[in-house]
Amino acid sequence: DSDNNDKYDFLFKIVLIGDSGVGKTNLMTRYTRNEFSTKSKTTIGVEFASKTIKIDDKIAKLQIWDTAGQERYRAITSAYYRGTVGAVIVFDITKYESFENCRKWIEEVRENAPPNITITLVGNKIDLESIRTVGNEKASTFAKEYGITFFETSALNSTNVEKAFYDHFSNIYQQTK
Ligand code: GDP
Predict the structure, then answer these.
(1) 38: CA distance to ligand 1 center in Å?
(2) For the whole model, what pTM was predicted?
(3) Can you tell me which atom of ligand 1 is nearest the CA of 90?
(4) Which of 22, 44, 49, 154 is geometrically suited to a Cys-Cys bond with 159, CB 3.0 to 4.6 A?
């Protein structure tokens, strides 16, 4: 019941960052509702989604915020980052430019988000392996350079989505100890 849903040990707010079209909204809906849409996000219009998970016998309420298109105008304000403990930076493995822009996104996050924020890099759309332009090794080396964890996912067929988010939230949880 709703009373039970409101009992939690931790509330973790995270943001999804990255170029438009890389799959941020669909990663969020796949993870929180097991839903995927081929339509553009204007028709979805979700600002954030919640989910409750168990980590280490503790209940963590997760709030995952989508940029709702703000990234198009490069106008992600520090208000968006208020209270966030994590940022998942997403690129599309078939769009090299979206990978190159991750450097900028990471720096943006480090400038505007609270210090000690946990960052995870995600290369999405691995179901499109045949038209991949960003090599796994290349992205992996890049992530190591920044000391962040890297996952490849598919919001379309669910590959690694659960795993990437769980790892992200586990890292956030470790910081609370
Ligand atoms: P956002 O702008 O970053 O939020 O991206 P969206 O979630 O709106 O996705 C942009 C487009 O990519 C949509 O047409 C999605 O259906 C598609 N898409 C998202 N994730 C995947 C994926 O893992 N694989 C494939 N093939 N398409 C995806």
Answers:
(1) 7
(2) 0.93
(3) 3
(4) 154
